[in-house]
Amino acid sequence: MGMSVTISAATEQDAEQILKLQYLCYQREAELYGDYSIEPLTQPLDSIRAELSGGSVLVARLGDEVVASVRGTLGADGTAHINKLIVHPRMQRHGLGGRLLAAIEERLGSIGTVKRYQLFSGHRSDHNLRLYRKHGYAPVGSEQVDERLTLVTLSKTIEAPAFAASA
User: Fold this and answer.
1) Residue 141 forms beta bridges with which residues?
2) What is the pLDDT of residue 1?
3) In contact, 77 and 115? CB cutoff 8 Å
4) Whether the Cβ atoms of residue 36 and residue 149 lie closer than 8 Å to each other
5) For the purposes of burial, counting CB atoms within 10 Å of the CB of 156, is it exposed (0-12), middle (13-18) or buried (19 or more)?
6) Separation in Å, CA 117 to CA 81, 109, 110, 144, 167
7) CATH T-level fold of 5-118
8) 59 CB burial (10 A radius; 0-12, 13-18, 19+)
């Protein structure tokens, strides 16, 4: 009998597992861009603990193991920023990234009024870009960080609900 993956809010006790998973997941990105000094690979544990207390962090668990995670914050202007969506390599391509993306959108929408969701990815990260486009995100800008990396910003605007006119 197999276990199912559950998604929930991360706790302080998850910080170390999130850091280890992040380090594993960003190896491929570092290789793709030829840069092992990227922030996800150098982020200290204390910084992740601060994110746990200052934003919305979700984890997906398979039993007691954290196999995926995502973080988000909601700005005063109604822009929900989503970042560090990570899925353990052995759990990829089973829809877990999409489930986590939907869950963080729902979480951020429950804490305030969201006008748009925004995230970014490297220009060579085809799998990530496909996932985001599949979930309604469209490129809205790019920034060349250095000769190897251009960050693509993607956004999904929330349509204001239509109110029926009363007669």
Assistant:
1) 153
2) 40
3) yes
4) no
5) buried
6) 6, 10, 13, 21, 35
7) Aminopeptidase (3.40.630)
8) buried
User: What is the tally of helices (H) and strands (E) in the chain?
Assistant: 5, 7
The position carrying tokens 């962090």 is 57
For residues 39 and 94, give the distance between their C-alpha atoms in angstroms, rounded to a whole number: 27
pLDDT at 160: 59
Judge contact between 69 and 104, C-beta under 8 A: no
Tell me the torsion sign for CA atoms 69, 74, 75, 79: positive
Per-residue confidence (pLDDT) for residue 161, from 0 to 100: 56
d(CA 32, CA 24) in angstroms, rounded, equals 14
Per-residue pLDDT, 2:
54
DSSP H helical ranges for the chain: 15-33, 39-42, 45-54, 96-111, 126-134
What is the reported pTM?
Answer: 0.89
Per-run averaged pLDDT (10 residues), the chain, 167 residues: 82 96 95 91 95 92 96 94 96 93 95 92 93 96 90 88 51
